[in-house]
Design a protein that fits this description.
Layout lengths: L2 H4 L7 H7 L8 E5 L6 E7 L3 E2 L4 E2 L5 H4 L22 H6 L9 H4 L3 H5 L9 E2 L10 E2 L8
Length: about 150
């Protein structure tokens, strides 16, 4: 049986934890929180380190040297990261939901995820190209399939 079914998030090895990431790139989107309502808004502006074609960090191992405020997603903080989209594999498993049918661990590649529109591929711009972040608010990151 697959490790994500037989183990809790806190029982995963670091390798299993990293494999669980679907690689969608949504966690790398800049987000805004309304000061008055605390409502979360996603933007289509990504961290400068995101490879927007392949949806992965170009300096993953040393990302904190480039982006000190980058948030590391861990078993210890996953339940407090309410800004992760419902489609996120970590969030799904935390909420006792199965991996989605398009997840790379089930399909063997990111192709099904991209085809289902569940990644940021082809939808984003680099934050360095953005002047008014409020003009880049989008709703598609909250989409969740199966």
């Amino acid at each position: 049986m697959s490790f994500w079914i037989t183990k809790s998030l806190s029982q995963l090895s670091s390798t299993e934890w990293e494999q669980l990431c679907d690689g969608c790139g949504k966690c790398c989107l800049n987000k805004l929180i309304d000061d008055e309502t605390d409502e979360l808004y996603y933007t289509n502006a990504t961290c400068k380190l995101l490879d927007r074609e392949n949806c992965h960090c170009i300096h993953y191992e040393s990302r904190f040297n480039f982006v000190p405020l980058c948030t590391e997603i861990t078993p210890d903080n996953i339940d407090s990261l309410t800004w992760l989209p419902d489609s996120c594999a970590y969030r799904r498993l935390l909420n006792k939901r199965p991996l989605p049918s398009w997840h790379p661990l089930l399909t063997g590649s990111k192709d099904a995820m991209h085809a289902a529109g569940m990644s940021v591929k082809g939808k984003v711009v680099c934050e360095t190209q953005v002047q008014e972040i409020e003009d880049h608010i989008v709703v598609w990151p909250i989409k969740d399939l199966d």
